[in-house]
Amino acid sequence: FIVAEQVWPARERPGWRDYGINLAITVLAVYLALPIGLLAGLTSAALHHYLPWHTMPLPFADASGPLGAAGRILTLTFVPLLIHDAWFYWSHRIEHRVSVLWEFHKLHHGDLRMNCTTFFRDHVLQNAWPSFFSIFTMGLLFDLDAAQAGAAGIYSGLFLMLLSMLYHSAIRMPLRWLDFVVVTPQTHRIHHSIEPEDFDHNFADVFPIFDIVFGTYRRARKGYFPATGLPGNELGGYRVDEAVLDLEAIRDLIARYGPMADAGDGEGLASLFTPDGRYTIAAFAEAQGRKEISALLDTPSHRQLMQDGCAHLLGPVTIKLNGDHATATGHSVVFHHKGSEFVVFRVAANRWYLQRAKNGQWAVARRENALLDGSEAARQLVQPAS
Fold this sequence. Notes:
- This protein has 386 residues and is of the alpha+beta class.
- It has helices spanning 2-7, 16-46, 68-97, 99-109, 124-141, 146-168, 185-192, 209-213, 242-255, 257-263, 266-270, 290-295, 300-308, 376-381, and strands at residues 273-281, 285-288, 310-322, 325-338, 341-356, 362-371.
- 46% of the residues lie in helices and 17% in strands.
- The chain has a 6-stranded mixed β-sheet with strand order 2-1-6-5-4-3.
- Helix 3 (68-97) packs across helix 5 (124-141).
- The longest helix has 31 residues, at 16-46.
- The radius of gyration is 28 Å and the shape is elongated.
């Protein structure tokens, strides 16, 4: 999983520090959680004699049954997981509603670069109570011998560990055909998203059917991999750290445009755009694709500007972030050297539409530029981005 996250990252690649912190938390949580699981099993066994019903054998849990070894493995894997998820779904929802429990659970949500080791990033008390009740319930319903109980723990635990590492991973892997069957990386990323519209969705641990039935399911739109972390300004949240990095990356990208235009670096300037990016200069020119955008610096008018001396200055921009997309609004001024002085050649309004590439870098998908000559087109560009 770690190798895949480095090769096909959903957003920014997790670093070794991200992995190390989560694994350190894991060691402590597992060490403290084991006694809780044993206590749950012993408690349910002690209550057998007081139950108003008889515990029943788990169907197909014996390899000698009609489905053989395959039926035993499937039964001892998915029946415990179904019981686990019934408890987990509601305990998870409660953790998001009860402030005391949220204080423990937000350790898990505080990972800015969610990755396969985020699965382990849990406070021991967060794991304790849902784990206790799922194991406790299993013991009240079914009569399992020690071998079956051990096999159920191994099979269901291994499946859950691998699935959870997969859907917490930072791999850009859409599995839309599985979205309604088991939890997938995109559907669980919705749960960890810092976007307000994604809050309080996709609580299930294994089977999305619980979210679907109880109205909390949200399927990710195609290509949607939102930033993760804590909402608002909570400690460790995206708004404090990751948004600042995105804003600075976009400002740096736009600032690089001017020097490249002055130097006639068409190839470098075009690389700021996506491969099918578009640059529209109202009432003058429109270019689509890097080849056409690069050619704008080879026009007679631009060559004359460079020959005389020019400066393309980009003013400060206001930026609106929206996951993997952003808009920036600002002004640009071109100075032309004539004789012994510089004169204003062009003052324009600009709107930049940017998107994050698969490698995590920002690029310009579209730039619109219009002279500030009183035209409606220019006034529209300097309006706040919607």
